[in-house]
Design a protein that fits this description.
It contains 16 helices and seven strands. The chain is an alpha/beta fold and 462 residues long. The protein has a seven-stranded mixed beta sheet, with helices on both faces. Helix 10 crosses helix 16 and helix 14 packs across helix 15. Strand 6 and strand 7 form a beta hairpin. It folds into three domains: 231 residues, Glycerol-3-phosphate (1)-acyltransferase, CATH 3.40.1130; 91 residues, no CATH class; 118 residues, no CATH class. 63% of the residues lie in helices and 9% in strands.
């Protein structure tokens, strides 16, 4: 089945017009916030009911990113307190969210009232019905969003839902469990990238006899398989410093033009080689780590944000960027003037509302930023209407989104151009140091590639 047909088969749920409008707006905002959502392994996605089990680094953004990237509808579980008011229920229903009732929310608005078990069973029954109807669920078996560098212990709810749905259909309707890894380039930074890695579907039919005999043991066994599947698609490291460094190294080993999926592939290979070498040859891996730290420090001393990649050859890529910036400056300035202040208000409000919990900042920035910008435009349109007349106010509302988008692109390209020009200038002024650093870089690349090849060759032979 082609991607278009598969996506179409997942978008057969109907929503009222107001909910469709909200979904369209949110999916557009997701694409605006994360303009590059790359899906790796999409051909592995099966037909029939599918439970997408994913890591959970970014709050309510995670299911929205999955639906945007895959172009699928996927119901997901959200804590019941999100459903505790009419607006929350409307938003959650717009995305097919189902309430999960937590003991810690007992007595809260939207929380359980001594009926946690019964209410959750109602939700699980709805999940099983969706799977039997051939729909998709996006579940996060870690149970909560977090910013740790490794997966948390998994809960068995996803396994119990999948096995229960298959059992209720007499194991006649296909139900698939598919591990999904979410990797954000920088989840709190506007206009960054996301990689969605699809793992191999897990064969839950193998648990048919076991589930009939002992559902608890079967669910625990499938949960272990889910953990193994997530380990294959989620980048994990012992500490945050290593997890930040590995993609950096992967990018300059793979080359300047490497994309997010290639960076991910190299990062997995580097992490695997690092773990093996740390056991077999700790002195060698420590020396490599020290050399990489020296190289990164040397780059910073030169004022460079990224490794040498050939951009020192000239400024040819800058000419078209200069022309674009010149011709769009008036439009960009108008967009900046009417939008920037209200958008910047989203971050301090986010920090006030949720503290410094980085797992929720991007959620509040995206929704709060959109709300502040929209309210700002409405206020500005009212002021213009009072000053120049209603026609000018409506005209302002018509053109300001386009101007704001041009302003956004202008800022990105101006920043990239400034980095290119500054980089070129530093490289020209310090040619001797650059040549020495290029030799260090080449030596490091060869050392790391040799280590990776040695580890992978030994693994093939063993």
């Amino acid at each position: 089945m082609t991607r278009q047909n598969l996506a179409s088969s997942r978008r057969n749920r109907s929503f009222p017009a107001a909910q469709k409008l909200l979904r369209t707006l949110v999916f557009w905002l997701i694409r605006l916030f994360y303009p590059d959502i790359v899906v790796l392994g999409e051909e592995k996605l099966p037909q029939g009911g599918v439970v997408l089990v994913a890591n959970h680094p970014n709050g309510l953004i995670d299911p929205a990113v999955i639906m945007t990237g895959l172009q699928w509808d996927a119901a997901f579980l959200a804590k019941s307190t999100f459903f505790g008011n009419p607006f929350g229920r409307f938003v959650m229903a717009s995305f097919g969210a189902l309430p999960i009732f937590r003991h810690i929310d007992e007595g809260k608005r939207g929380g359980p009232k001594g009926d946690q078990k019964e209410r959750n069973e109602e939700t699980f029954a709805r999940c099983r019905a969706l799977l039997q109807a051939g729909q998709a669920l996006a579940l996060f078996p870690e149970g909560r969003t977090h910013s740790y560098t490794q997966l948390l212990p998994l809960r068995s709810g996803a396994a119990r839902i999948a096995l229960g749905a298959a059992a209720e259909s007499g194991w006649q309707k296909p139900v698939h469990v598919v591990p999904v890894g979410l990797w954000y380039e920088n989840k709190t930074i506007f206009r960054s990238s996301v990689l969605i890695v699809i793992g191999d579907p897990l064969p839950i039919d193998d648990y048919q006899q076991g589930f009939t005999a002992d559902p608890f043991t079967a669910a625990r066994g499938l949960t272990r398989q889910i953990r193994n599947g997530l380990d294959e698609v989620v980048l994990q490291a012992e500490d945050a410093e290593l997890l930040r460094a590995i993609p950096f190294i992967a990018r300059w080993i793979a080359g300047a033009d490497t994309d997010l999926s290639e960076t991910y592939g190299w990062s997995r290979r580097l992490l695997a080689a690092y773990r093996v070498m740390r056991r077999r040859d700790p002195a060698r891996i420590e020396q490599l780590a020290n050399d990489v730290r020296y190289y990164a420090q040397a780059l910073r001393r030169l004022g460079l944000k990224r490794p040498l990649d050939g951009s020192e050859e000239g400024l040819n890529p800058a000419f078209r960027a200069y022309l674009w910036l010149i011709f769009t400056l008036p439009i960009a300035f108008f967009g900046f003037l009417t939008t920037y202040l209200t958008y910047r208000m989203a971050r301090p409000v986010a920090l006030t509302v949720i503290g410094h919990d980085r797992t929720q900042i991007s959620t509040v920035k995206l929704l709060g930023g959109a709300l502040f910008v929209l309210l700002g435009w409405i206020i500005e349109a009212v002021v213009i209407s009072q000053w120049l007349g209603a026609l000018w106010g409506w005209l302002f509302l018509l053109i300001v989104p386009f101007c704001a988008y041009v302003g956004l692109l202008w800022g990105e390209r101006a920043e990239a151009l400034a980095e290119l020009v500054g980089r070129h200038g530093r490289l020209l002024l310090r040619r001797g140091r650059v040549r020495r650093l290029a030799r260090v870089q080449e030596h490091l690349v060869q050392e790391i590639l040799a280590a990776v090849k040695e580890v992978e060759d030994n693994q093939l032979l063993s």
